[in-house]
Amino acid sequence: MNLVDKVKNRERLTQKEAEALYELDLLTLGELANEIREEKFGKKSYFNINRHINPTNVCADICKFCAYSASRKNPNQYTMSHQEILEIAISAYSRGAKEVHIVSAHNPNGGVDWYMGAFRKIREALPDIHIKAMTGAEVDFLSRQYGLTYDEVLDLMVESGVDSMPGGGAEIFNEKIRDYLCKGKVSSKNWLEIHKKWHRRGKQSNATMLFGHIESRTDRIDHILRLRDLQDITGGFNAFIPLVYQRENNFLKVKNFLSAQEILKTYSISRILLDNIPHIKAYWATTTINLALIAQEFGADDLDGTIEKESIQSSAGANSANGMSLNDFISLIKNSGFIPVERDSLYKELKIYE
Ligand code: V47
């Protein structure tokens, strides 16, 4: 059976077959992915009203792709107090945010309680807000820095009010590339192990993939299939988020940047391969909003959210520092022929903007 028929029959593809998908022309691939997207969600495109908070940029690790952490390329260190973090959460909540997405650098100065105390404060003051916090890389960092097991860190997160985990820190799972990009940070095996343990607690999370740097197509497929394998076991991933590498102010020199065609192909292939992860998120901070809107026709059904303030990708050149207004977000989705659906963090539909 040829590859296109296999996809149409919803058969699972192997690594080699999946690599061959890249050889299809973009529109054929897009149509295959869109068929699956429409089967699952019709013309609905999901988003949430959220606030990203990055409480510190002080980092014990040095990832070559990162422009956010304080280093000689970014000498402006900052660390927020619990009160500052709480005030941001309260003010976002008062403007309608249903979720705070909290991701920090790996700050060796504050202790575990600097991390957990912030979650507890938010939970006490805002019992309804969804706290999405702590990447697998942060969990691993706290475990190594303070001699805790992964289970102990995850239990502390649950006790402190964390509801779900974001997908960051996955980068690219190929060990050789990973070693070059971010040696010393959580290993691929352990990133997956941490999410497995989190899912075993009945909790949900997302998964990212950083692409468009020095990885190959083979590495991308390998990354996606490792996630598919874990999801077969736990079922705990809500969304897969391919993050397009942003190139400025960091230590990773990349000669050839991805074409829009390659980015869209990667979205479509993700949709086709991940038959067990419900949502494919085009995170507009890394694709640009223009390409995220187009990605809706190439398999993506989620555009993340209004964000309000974004530091990680915008430090590396993305045009996302100040998020996007709700009205703009809704009208852009509508005008691109899709139905904006405000969701909560676990994809319950809150409001359909027909
Ligand atoms: O893991 C760092 C990435 C991630 C760069 O779970 C970069 O809903 C591009 O994980 N170019 C953090 N990306 C962001 C993240 C995320 C974002 C939105 C939604 C969700 C979710 C998760 O940012 C890191 C890293 O892979 N990153 N530097 C860069 N130069």
Give a short synopsis of this structure:
The chain is of the alpha/beta class and 354 residues long. It has helices at 3-8, 15-21, 26-41, 82-94, 112-125, 136-146, 150-159, 175-182, 188-200, 217-234, 260-273, 284-287, 289-295, 312-315, 326-335, and strands spanning 44-48, 50-53, 99-102, 130-133, 164-165, 204-211, 237-244, 279-280, 302-305, 339-343, 349-352.
Polypeptide structure, described:
With 354 residues, the chain is an alpha/beta fold. The protein contains 15 helices and 11 strands. The chain has helices at 3-8, 15-21, 26-41, 82-94, 112-125, 136-146, 150-159, 175-182, 188-200, 217-234, 260-273, 284-287, 289-295, 312-315, 326-335, and strands spanning 44-48, 50-53, 99-102, 130-133, 164-165, 204-211, 237-244, 279-280, 302-305, 339-343, 349-352. It has a 4-stranded mixed β-sheet, covered by helices on one side. Strand 2, helix 4 and strand 3 (99-102) form a beta-alpha-beta unit. The model has no long low-confidence stretch (mean pLDDT 95). Bound molecules: ligand V47. Ligand V47 binds next to strand 6, strand 7 and helix 14. Ligand V47 is lined by residues 65-67, 103, 135, 166-169, 171, 206, 208, 210, 241, 243, 245-246, 250, 283, 286, 304, 312-313, 316.
Helix and strand arrangement:
Elements: H1 3-8, H2 15-21, H3 26-41, E1 44-48, E2 50-53, H4 82-94, E3 99-102, H5 112-125, E4 130-133, H6 136-146, H7 150-159, E5 164-165, H8 175-182, H9 188-200, E6 204-211, H10 217-234, E7 237-244, H11 260-273, E8 279-280, H12 284-287, H13 289-295, E9 302-305, H14 312-315, H15 326-335, E10 339-343, E11 349-352
Parallel strand pairs: 1-9, 1-10, 2-3, 3-4, 5-6, 6-7, 7-8
Antiparallel strand pairs: 10-11
The protein binds ligand V47.
Ligand V47 binds at residues 65-67, 103, 135, 166-169, 171, 206, 208, 210, 241, 243, 245-246, 250, 283, 286, 304, 312-313, 316.
